[in-house]
Amino acid sequence: xxNMQGLAKDVLVIRSTGFRxxxxxxxxxxxxxxxxxxxxxxxxxxxxxxxxxxxxxxPDPHVTPETFQEQIKKSIAFLKGLKAVKKEVKLKLYQETxxxxxxxxxxxxxIQHYQAGQDIQRMPEYVFKHxxxxxxLYIPFYQYFMTRWNDPNVPEYDLDADMLxxxxxxxxEIKSERYDRQAEIASINARDHLALKHGHGYPFDRVIxxxxxxxxxxxxxxxxxxxxx
Length: 229
Description:
Layout: H1 2-6, E1 10-14, H2 19-23, H3 30-35, E2 38-44, H4 49-57, H5 65-84, E3 88-94, E4 100-105, E5 108-113, E6 126-129, H6 138-149, E7 156-158, E8 163-167, E9 173-178, H7 179-197, H8 221-224
Parallel strand pairs: 1-2, 2-3
Antiparallel strand pairs: 1-4, 3-7, 4-5, 5-6, 7-8, 8-9
């Protein structure tokens, strides 16, 4: 269904790493993204605390914060390859804990829930069709994606220049920063957290937070959609 619906059409995607979606030749959107008209993709910032927490919550010894970062980097490299052959691809990196694995393909939306401590492959997938039925969840989930995509706190990743671009709600650029600066900041914070773990004290003045964090606690999925229903 996904290959058929995504052919020469726009594809809107939210993933955590995107590795099993894009990079793996058997991934459900590997061929779709190669043959779509335009792709808007949101991935977890590999250097965020949310990425580390998500990796640590999965009870698989092969899943670590380091492998999680590497998978996201490979997804970015895959998208760079598409951009290099003139495919229209836009990427944004979000900071929050993943909530939904979401794919919008024309008149269909496919959704899985990122439950803490569970591999997403074990979670059921729900499909909603865009129709005239008033009870359809297609519209609120579509609005959810657009709300996330247009959030000025979620930077666009410039696939040509390796820069993070922040824009206001009208699309005008507010500021930009080097993507590798995020890696430097993550390295400093990881080293300081390690020092704390081994009882060397906590160097508060050295902890750096590259982006403003959304610290609100969401106790259930419905609260995430209160602004789009």
